[in-house]
């Protein structure tokens, strides 16, 4: 790797487009989508999909709502040909879905492609040839522009000839100047218009001009300039309405999504891509990401992505690829927060939304979550996960969501610190059940030195007089009966402890709430106390079907935490 002055590489030239318009536009609707999973995605697999696997993936793409699906390269391999024939012969293609096949501009390949398509109702014949200076130099041995244009023209004539024999089939035509991204713009326009001259599209029956960013050589803004320049020049020639301008971006620089979104702003009408970005090298455009980005902007993507986990399951099984844990929208961790401050903000946002309304029209406003996970079939279970970097809010969120414990806010730091210390010492994430087990051991099962067995109110409160309470307890393992007087059970129990000389604390706070409903309802009580000498505060928790017993157990829990420190 060169350091200092880098001479091995050079920046891709910018486009001279001083009055570019794409940067001030906004997207208002979804583009036309075309899935190329079964061709571009399939050819990139170490083990290409079988016909059965391709059939299953095709059915998934139809279910999602793709109306244009590139099903393969039938002239290149027998499996591809057989798959295309099964789709047609077994009547698997809905009437509103158009299948697309790819072919190079060679007569026997074009003829074989049309043979594969016999009997289909709606087809797109996708013709391509390489056009860039690098391809002309390396692949075609210094071929001239004229040589390359001739290939495209002759290929288009052949497509037109075979299309005329497809009785009962609606044939549409797509041309791609392969490597548009590094082809001279004027030459891209020249070869595309030459193809249009042969095909003779109309506004009523336009052809598709697919402009591939086959290799990413530049930043996304340069790609947007290329697309806007091309669309403008077509408009100047009065041909823009005769062409559907299509994008096909790859991801060599990691900007496939950005290039596509800016390309749409620049005037493109159509997008080709794959589920989760599968494709050659670093992959194709991830259609799911672009579609859900539109959705997060309030635009209907016109694709059914309500079950991303289900889509991912079929994708991973049929392609043998794995969706990365951090992959936008589809990864295991994309709706997960480990950071304490993030967890706290998410919890507050979720609580606020729950208190406002369940109406879907209420704007989604939850910190760190761009969309509601449930919209795409994900649950809230994975939003907050706990490791040593996590905070008080995340622990409290899991205890509330999974175990019904609505801890007082002032208790969050205490339990958060306890959990974080354990996660840090073990060097791993803690599950929700493990967190509850720690809470249970720390607060609920904490019965030493003091354990409350039973209690009874000896004298009820009458005319403002205090009650008398008697409790059977164990203190350091020894059975004992203690008695106290107060304005309620908790106050009387504190007095009983004081009578025994055990009181080294001051009661600060008491909260309670119900867990569950109906016959299964229990009460959870929380009590905070302050150590008499150190002034350190401690919380206790008690859970019982009787609310008074829950409160007394919470006091015992807090007492024991004071005594054990």
Overall geometry comes to elongated
Helix segment count?
17
CATH superfamily of the largest domain: Aldolase class I
**CATH topology label of the largest domain:** TIM Barrel
- Radius of gyration, in Å, reads 34 Å
Structural class: alpha/beta
Which architecture of the largest domain per CATH?
Answer: Alpha-Beta Barrel
> What is the typical, i.e. mean, pLDDT?
92
The percent range for strand residues is 15-25%
Number of structurally distinct domains: 3
**Terminus-to-terminus distance:** 59 Å
Largest sheet: 8 strands, parallel, barrel
Q: What is the topology, as strand order, of the major beta sheet? A: 1-2-3-4-5-6-7-8
- Helix content class: 25-40%
Number of strands: 14
Assign the CATH class of the largest domain. Answer: Alpha Beta
Low-confidence stretches: none
Write the layout of secondary structure elements.
Elements: E1 32-35, H1 37-43, H2 51-64, E2 68-72, H3 78-89, E3 98-104, H4 107-116, E4 122-130, H5 133-138, H6 145-163, E5 170-178, H7 185-199, E6 207-213, H8 220-236, E7 243-249, H9 256-265, E8 270-273, H10 287-296, H11 308-319, H12 340-356, H13 392-403, H14 412-426, H15 432-444, E9 450-459, E10 467-475, E11 478-486, H16 489-499, E12 505-515, E13 522-531, E14 537-544, H17 547-563
Parallel strand pairs: 1-2, 1-8, 2-3, 3-4, 4-5, 5-6, 6-7, 7-8
Antiparallel strand pairs: 9-10, 10-11, 12-13, 13-14
Helix pairs in contact: 2-11, 4-6, 6-7, 7-8, 8-9, 12-13, 13-14, 13-15, 16-17
């Amino acid at each position: 790797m060169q350091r200092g002055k880098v001479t091995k590489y050079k920046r891709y030239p910018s486009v001279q487009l001083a009055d570019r318009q794409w940067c001030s536009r906004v997207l208002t609707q979804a583009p036309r989508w075309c899935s190329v999973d079964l061709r571009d995605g399939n050819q990139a697999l170490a083990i290409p999909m079988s016909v059965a696997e391709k059939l299953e993936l095709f059915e998934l793409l139809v279910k999602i709502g793709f109306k244009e699906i590139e099903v393969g390269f039938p002239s290149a391999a027998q499996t591809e040909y057989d798959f295309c024939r099964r789709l047609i012969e077994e009547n698997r293609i809905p009437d509103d879905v158009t299948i697309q096949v790819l072919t190079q501009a060679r007569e026997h390949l074009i003829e074989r492609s049309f043979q594969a398509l016999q009997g289909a109702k709606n087809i797109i014949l996708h013709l391509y040839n390489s056009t860039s200076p690098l391809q002309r130099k390396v692949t075609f041995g210094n071929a001239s522009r004229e040589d390359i244009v001739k290939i495209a023209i002759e290929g288009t004539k052949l497509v037109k000839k075979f299309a005329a024999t497809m009785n009962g089939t609606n044939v549409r035509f797509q041309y791609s100047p392969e490597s548009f991204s590094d082809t001279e713009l004027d030459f891209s326009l020249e070869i595309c218009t030459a193809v249009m001259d042969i095909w003779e599209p109309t506004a009523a029956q336009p052809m598709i001009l697919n402009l591939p960013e086959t290799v990413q050589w530049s930043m996304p803004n340069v790609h947007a300039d290329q697309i806007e320049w091309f669309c403008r020049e077509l408009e100047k020639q009065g041909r823009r309405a005769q062409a559907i301008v299509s994008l096909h971006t790859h991801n060599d620089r990691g900007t496939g999504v950005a290039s596509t979104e800016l390309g749409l702003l620049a005037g493109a009408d159509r997008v080709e891509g794959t589920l989760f970005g599968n494709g050659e090298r670093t992959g194709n455009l991830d259609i799911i990401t672009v579609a859900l980005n539109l959705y997060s902007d309030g635009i209907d993507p016109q694709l059914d992505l309500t079950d991303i986990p289900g889509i991912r399951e079929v994708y991973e099984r049929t392609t043998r690829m794995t969706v990365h844990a951090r992959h936008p929208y589809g990864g295991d961790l994309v709706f997960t927060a480990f950071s304490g401050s993030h967890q706290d903000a998410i919890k507050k946002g979720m609580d606020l939304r729950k208190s406002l309304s369940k109406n879907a029209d209420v704007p989604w406003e939850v910190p760190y979550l761009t969309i509601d996970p449930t919209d795409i079939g994900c649950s809230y279970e994975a939003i907050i996960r706990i490791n040593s970097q996590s905070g008080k809010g995340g622990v409290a969120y899991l205890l509330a969501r999974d175990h019904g414990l609505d801890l007082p806010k002032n208790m969050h730091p205490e339990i958060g610190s306890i959990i974080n210390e354990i996660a840090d010492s073990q060097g791993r994430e803690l599950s929700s059940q493990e967190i509850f087990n720690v809470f249970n051991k720390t607060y609920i099962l904490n019965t030493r030195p003091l354990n409350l067995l039973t209690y009874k109110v000896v004298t009820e409160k009458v005319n403002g007089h205090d009650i008398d309470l008697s409790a059977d307890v164990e203190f350091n393992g020894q059975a004992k009966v203690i008695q106290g007087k107060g304005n309620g059970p908790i106050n009387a129990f504190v007095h009983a402890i004081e009578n025994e000389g055990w009181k080294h604390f001051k009661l600060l706070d008491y909260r309670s709430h119900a867990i569950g409903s109906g016959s299964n309802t229990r009460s959870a009580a929380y009590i905070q106390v302050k150590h008499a000498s150190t002034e350190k505060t401690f919380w206790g928790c008690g859970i019982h079907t009787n609310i008074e017993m829950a409160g007394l157990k919470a006091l015992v829990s807090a007492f024991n935490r004071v005594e054990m420190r």
